[in-house]
AMIN-like domain-containing protein
Amino acid sequence: MTTTRFRTAAIAVAGVLLLAACEGSDLPGYGSGVRPSSSAAAPSGTTSGSAPADDGASFTDPAETSVAEPGGAQLLTVTDVTVEEHDGFDRVVLALDGDGTPGWRVGYVDEALDAGTGDVVPVAGDAVLEVALTGTAMPMDSGVTEYGGDPVAGTREAVAVAEVVYRFVFEGATTAFVGVTGQARPFRVQTHDDPLAVVVDVQR
């Protein structure tokens, strides 16, 4: 009887010690030892899932034009337009859906002119950065609902981007005008794969 009780007590003590060790370890599934998820809420002024804040790409001289060719099926449609605040620059995000790889032609223009009519498009700001995405298609062809077209206000401080005016797709190109405060500022254009987007950074 005494031997049985001793074994039972020993097993109980061993179980407690094992549980305590697991809780303090990195083994998955054991209390405080579970590693926290790497996901976190997006910082204020940013959009979750947007491109990295800064991947080291250089900014383009304001006098130059950034050009990239589209690829694939060229059946993309812009689904959303947002403006984000980052350290040292403001970011315009043009979210895309559909098939293909986007191309673009981005550069400063003397005035914003609608591609379909040639009419002047009112844009807040002192300089106008024209963003023409290529490889895009009409929603009826891409099967994707296009962004509604509401102008997007710039950041709270309006340091670089004052406003973005979206002008829809026309003959395979989708145009948006970025109103920039002050004189024309250096910019850069990049793609983000997941989710698909073209991002335009305007230096503060």
Observations:
- Confidence is low (pLDDT under 50) at residues 1-51.
- Strands lie at 66-68, 71-86, 89-101, 103-109, 127-134, 152-153, 161-170, 173-180, 187-193, 196-203.
- The radius of gyration is 26 Å.
